[in-house]
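hey so u asked for the seq, here:
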Amino acid sequence: MTNPFSLEGKVALVTGANTGIGQGIAIALATAGADIAAAGRSEPTETQKAVEGLGRKFLSIKADFGSTEPVQRVVDETVAAFGKVDILVNNAGIIRRADSIEFSEADWDAVMDTNLKVVFFLTQAFAKQALKQGVDGGQAKVINIASLLSFQGGIRVPSYTAAKSGLAGLTKILANEWATKGINVNAIAPGYFDTNNTEALRNDADRNAAILARIPAGRWGRPEDIGGAAVFLASPASDYVQGITLPVDGGWLAR
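ran it, structure tokens below
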């Protein structure tokens, strides 16, 4: 193996790749050699430009992951365009903030559906396709985007914490079931990153200062900070890594 981190010849399906962490991961995977299918509600124009600028193929798939409706179609369109799919990155997600005493059922259901239910069924559809393809070209890889709230409780985000804690557990059970089938299932837990989801926190002077005071790295994460972990978990270098949730947090959990 000349380069265990090479993704040459691989096809990666990345959800929510139009901005932020998803965009950073898609560009990192393309830099390592993968062609990219990006699925989500918004047109990933900047991501497409960056990926194609690296000489990789790019497919944009319109999909609203608020329900399971697009799950099979997203996998089918990826395979129709590229002939296969080797890597799935479950990045698309939403967050709702309110005190738990007042949290609504609608906000609970919206977050749980997008961040956990749809992730499971998309991963299931991907796994069925991976098993159909076989592993002649190497193992299939699933990368779930978890959260620090897969380890901690947080405040004012009960459904998000429940979903991300559930996602860490889902990562383990799928690894248990699929490790012998040539499918690796792992997760990345981003720390506090400069993304749309954290805009409210960054705009709150007190919360922003408190968060920065706890991060040993002394700054919010940038989308490109997550790319190396994603390439590792997508590549042959991680073939014997199963069921982990890898924090990329500037040292937050070590504090």
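The chain has one domain: 11-254. DSSP finds eight helices and seven strands in the chain.
lmk if thats what u needed
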